[in-house]
Amino acid sequence: MDLIDLLLGRPLATEEEKAERIGPAKGIPIFGLDALSSAAYGPEAALTLLIPLGMAGVAYIVPISISIIFLLAIVYFSYRQTIMAYPQGGGSYTVASENLGVWPGLLAAASLMVDYVLTAAVGISAGVGALISAMPSLEKHTLALCLAILIVVTLVNLRGVSEAGAIFRVPTYLFIFCLLAMIALGVIKTLASGGHPVPVIAPPHLMGTAEALGIWLLLRAFASGCTAMTGVEAVSNGVMAFKEPASVTARLTLTVVIGILTVMLAGIAFLCRAYGVAATPPGQSGYQSVLSQLLVAITGKGIFYGVSIGSILVVLALSANTAFADFPRLARAIAQNGFLPHGLAIRGRRLVYTQGVYALALLAGTLLIVFGGVTDRLIPLYAVGAFMAFTLSQAGMVMHWKRVRGPGSSKSMFVNGLGALATGLTVIIVLIAKFTEGAWITLLLIPGLILMMRLVKRHFDYVAGETDNGAPLNIRDLTPPIVVITIDRWSRITQKALRFAMTISPDVLALHVDYDQESDTLASQWAQLVEEPARRAGLAGPRLVILKSPYRFVIRPILDYALDLEKNNPGRQIAVLTPELVEFRWYLNLLHNHRSAALKALLLFQGDRRIMVINIPWYLTDQDARP
Amino acid sequence: MDLIDLLLGRPLATEEEKAERIGPAKGIPIFGLDALSSAAYGPEAALTLLIPLGMAGVAYIVPISISIIFLLAIVYFSYRQTIMAYPQGGGSYTVASENLGVWPGLLAAASLMVDYVLTAAVGISAGVGALISAMPSLEKHTLALCLAILIVVTLVNLRGVSEAGAIFRVPTYLFIFCLLAMIALGVIKTLASGGHPVPVIAPPHLMGTAEALGIWLLLRAFASGCTAMTGVEAVSNGVMAFKEPASVTARLTLTVVIGILTVMLAGIAFLCRAYGVAATPPGQSGYQSVLSQLLVAITGKGIFYGVSIGSILVVLALSANTAFADFPRLARAIAQNGFLPHGLAIRGRRLVYTQGVYALALLAGTLLIVFGGVTDRLIPLYAVGAFMAFTLSQAGMVMHWKRVRGPGSSKSMFVNGLGALATGLTVIIVLIAKFTEGAWITLLLIPGLILMMRLVKRHFDYVAGETDNGAPLNIRDLTPPIVVITIDRWSRITQKALRFAMTISPDVLALHVDYDQESDTLASQWAQLVEEPARRAGLAGPRLVILKSPYRFVIRPILDYALDLEKNNPGRQIAVLTPELVEFRWYLNLLHNHRSAALKALLLFQGDRRIMVINIPWYLTDQDARP
To answer: How far is A473 from chain B (nearest CA, A)?
Structure first.
């Protein structure tokens, strides 16, 4: 247990939950990391689609970024309201199922699950990808690096929300500082030079292929840029993790995150146009990320460049952490409604929903292994999930305000309605623009998940219907069971089992399977050592039953006998008692047969409701042999 | 079960054992294959060592082969006597332990185990090696081919001795026919040409490096050639597998096997000299096996050549079968004396010692995997084991005849004594000649195995001492146990468990772990639905105990409570009763927690002798859900 304490920290009592709650300083690394890190790939994704336009295309990043920031603002105001209305945690799932009904709720749940699993996998593999483009010699270790990061993030999250926030604080704030400093410096230089700054190191010049600008190209660039908005929902889902007053703290955190993200998106767009930085074709030689180009253009290749690039790598890799903070909370909300196994709703030793963390690690790990650690093909999938969840959440809030009429509710309804409309439109744009790139997979995956959750719920409902009991205890007919003991030879183990059997019932049968045709000794010992003393004590001696086994089967005859006994004694309970030698060293178990375990499994599986199985452990007296 | 019937055949009753017994026709493929197949590599191994002498060395194969045949004759007469003296099966282990004592017996056992495991692995990899030298494109599948053959041989042996004999009959007799026909043809051609036959295709000529012939070289060539004698012990070990009168049938089989092997060894040596066939350096380009050279020299590259080479490949690969026939019998004899787990002495569905077959398959498979299917470096190891076993067996027989004085016992003693001396000398020669090539590993391995068997025996003796019981059943003090039920909520499952508990004891405690601070409902239900009706029936109502669990552990509080109960109630037995939902589809088990299984394991492991565990299964009524 000490190793576990060291790895995961001491157990936290349920009452310590308050102390685990976090303020904005830790809230940003936990719930904001996903949103903030997307500044590193959102603008780049939009610019990549503008490559065919040559240097002329760079100018379009400004209107595209303005549209995205506008959308972000709408979503921000909507979520502010959601947080206030749902201080218990208002994830899309909760809001949609409470206001729109079960099916929209499940649609939001499935969308978010897809989104979080992909966020975890894609975040880690993006970070490792960036690291490899800096150090190409690491390429052969791609998968190993991805899995190592996954394990670290999983362990940190198992240690609890507060510790995760503390651990991830340094890289997060370094990243924020570097990017904001770069933007400030770049803007000053641009203004000082009258809008035409001279880059320290000039970015590569794109060949101007004179392709005409079409609305279709702009829409696709916008759809790609929208990946910058994933992760915005995280805070609203995790309100309960914040210090009291939770809603206020959460809202403050959301404001800071969105504020920083807005500055980053706007600054990057402005500087790209000012310095003439375009995207370079990914996957080709000479590729350099947009942020890297901006950094060298503004500051040159010095220490600042190195620190900034390093913090970008780390933050990308750790953006998976937001998924780890939110997925377990989402899974818990779904499980509490019976759509996922109840274990997901149980808090582990550090007050996090341990099984949700495991589930996410398992799913993300599987994705990483299947794709060998290179998951960029999955990026189109997850913008769909995120925006679907946004839309349902906003739509749910509209219904919420319609129900909870009060001062200002019309205004709130308008804000959320606008959000629903904008994000709904975005879902459609992303779906169409990214359909052939893989968004269609989401269209199959999400209904599959919904179906699975419905089936889980149906099964739990069925089990509850079968086992729920409002009736009082039935006291009648408490006849002791018929006890069947399996016996190999007359030993102290047998005697212990027999004595236990005789304490719980007067009807005891000892079964011996005669597979090697040598049962005469046992029969005579039985008459002399068991039946004789029992008779003298005036008890009905336990009867010995010898089962012939011409095919040398041992388990089958016992099983058949017990099932026959059950059939021939309607209303009686049958207790099958298997004496077992307990060895304290695992390798010693290799020396013995494990028939009793097999018998137990088969009895429970094939028996009807009236067969019970009793384990009688036998320990060797040598206390040294105990661990 | 139908698939198993198809794969392994229907179960055989113990009484059908007689029908499974075999005559010489099946005995040769089963117990003679190892010995006969060694004609394909024994002479070659000797000739390989003579390569440095050039073509002049070829002549020495005749005296070397004569020495080997002489040794073979001695061993043959010794084993004839062993078979008659031990009609129950007189393997080296039995003979040595009965006549020389426990330690020599274990030495023989360990030597033979090493020998058999290596025979299985080396036989298969030699066959595959020969196949690959014919079809080099298969090389990348070496290991897969080896494992496939291992699986086939294992399955065939699991189907029983008789079937294995029937299946392996065709390739065995084809091999015997081809080799004998080649020898007959070659001898006729040689005699017809006055001792100087003209080869159809001339064998490659060796460069005559004028190295002087030394006694050391001759001894090493002899030691290598002795691998031709491994497998001779097999028949004497398997006497019980033969038709009655078993000794006579076994002796007849041995005579036929040794007769054929003698003709083969003599014929190959004679023809090598007559045709001037030397070994070619193995592992180099231009390598061709001695038998292949002989075949083309005598018959040319026609159909006969193809069929013969094919049968040699198959017989080499199947020579592993002899190990599969004998190892389980050996392991059974050792297990019956308590030096190996008893399971090895139990006959499976087809009357073979199934666990011995599995053990051999596992060990040989491990060797093949570790060495990637190329095991020729292991060959020196196994001649040591085989000759060590020969020696101990003969020495044991000397002591046997000394004890069982009778007509002809002095003559028998002389024959076995001569055998012991000859094989003992051979062990020393092989050990010295092959020491640096790996025979030293055997010198470490065999004592290791002996130590392991001693420790197994000591543990079994200890367990027997702890559990053996000659005393009659103790009838006093049959107080019913204190029954502890673990309860989550008041359900039909709980009610069933509670009713069972009340039938076996008046002392029933219901434990509820309050990990989510919501136990008030249960407490009030308990008072109303359980205690109230019990009181009305005049029974001491089962008491509800609520265990607080601030750290949300569920198993630990129950475990601690049960262990405390055990400590505070000396002399009382504690029965912990865990209600369990039985799901009939494996994936449905993913939906539930498995605390009861964990609790059971911990209770049995940490409890003392007085804690029992009772499983109360609960089945859903839906009969469609059953398999």
So the answer is: 5
